[in-house]
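Entry — protein

Goal — fold tokens:
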Amino acid sequence: MAVGPDTLPELKSIDGFRIGVASAGIKKPGRRDIVLMEICEGATVAGVFTKNAFSAAPVVLSKKHLASTAARYLLVNTGNANAGTGEQGMLDAKSCCNAVAERTGVAVEAVLPFSTGVIGEPLPVDKIIAALDDAKADLREENWLNAAHGIMTTDTRAKAACEQFEHDGKTVTLTGISKGAGMIMPNMATMLGYVATDAAVDQAQLQAWLSAATEKSFNRITVDGDTSTNDSCILVATGRSGVNVSAADAQLAEKFDTALNGIMLELAQAIVRDGEGATKFVEVRVEKAAAVQEALDVAYTIAHSPLVKTALYASDPNWGRILACVGRAGVDNLDLNAIEIYLNDVCIVEKGGRAASYTEEQGQAVMNGEEILIHVVLNRGDVKESVWTTDLSTDYVHINADYRS
């Protein structure tokens, strides 16, 4: 179950970035569960990772390798997270990197590993290594869609996006894929994301742009309030378009930053739309706040509330639950009479209570829709922030109760 149409744009190839997909039979025989990505020499690579203290072995190793040398290969497996696996998990991640390095002639530090799936189970290293030759033989620039399917776990649909812009007669392309459906919460989500561009960007600037874009996309989504052990997002700039993007050229930098933010937000929202058991796609927007953290505190209190989320699932305009969340979000010195709360454009709360113009029929009409905006106006500043979330359905419980079955 997912919200919105299951359509993807044409995924443009990135010169200097090839992808191979194979089946290792990690969890299900014949399922595409290994993705190998090849990065050309001279490219720059940036990454952001989970802040979970129990970071998975591949996260720890990827961060170490990324800091030591230029990445040339990304290896992704699904069906097993290699998290909570102690010293053996690290040895297993290293073994997979070694196997890629041996087959490609690069330094082992130039291989970044990524895993997603069940936590606490040993990584089936032999199966992964056995599939590497098939993945290597499949390396193609046009393999984005197969890769989007290859990184899925409980996802019900592939997630991908593509952006292009022109500069001085040259076309710059950004293409990306992501996966995620449950255990979704900022810092980051239970997600993997890979975006590549044919622009040239120096590593420090690429990292800065990725970090900023992540903050407004993958760090603004939540399905269930759980932060995973394996979250990673990688941005690769191959430089093959001949367009060199730097902050010194403000106009070009703005074009690139806009395209990057657009693709990242689309990939992040696709995760929410495919949230486990989701029947609603919900934006919680807080504006006229005094500070960013204040706006986010209010937004996440609403977005994480089981009472709000179950009301959304039932299409029940129980606006008192939203009001209560605003009140318990921890914002000091709230002027209750100044706060306005809306469902889409229907005012439900003003002057400290139910809006005089509000009717249950208006609220019901909004809640019957698949896409809903919960809009809170604090009227205490100029800051506006949004987060995106889902309802909480009985299917979510079934999916996660049966996850290891």
